[in-house]
Amino acid sequence: MNVTPDRDGEYRVEHDDRQDLVYAAGRDGTFWAFWNGHVFREESRRDEQEKASTPASVAHGPQRLTAPMPATVIKVLVSPGQKVRKGDTVVLLEAMKMELPVRALADGTVGAVNSREGDLVQPDQILVELS
Asked: Which residues contact 87 (CB under 8 A, 6 or more apart)?
């Protein structure tokens, strides 16, 4: 396998007579890679240990849907009071030339929308709150 940087955050990966572009970004111990429509996220050991020491959220409690990486909000598909079902796309983001849907993790009702089209959002920023 051969990895060659093309531009800032963009890498050409050659493997088994195949070439792919992989986009990468990182911040504060978290690293994201985007390849072939898939998003991969890796956190440093310290971040994993801190998260493990915090209590897990209740499965039927409120949901806070967050940005998985630095991105731009392309479209907000819900409004407060709207019912959503598990898997429904609530916000569409764009990062590194890729569209990333943010989906409801369970059925619920939109309590608040904290993002607008055109917003630049950071990792873990709350976009939509569901109850």
From this structure: 103, 104
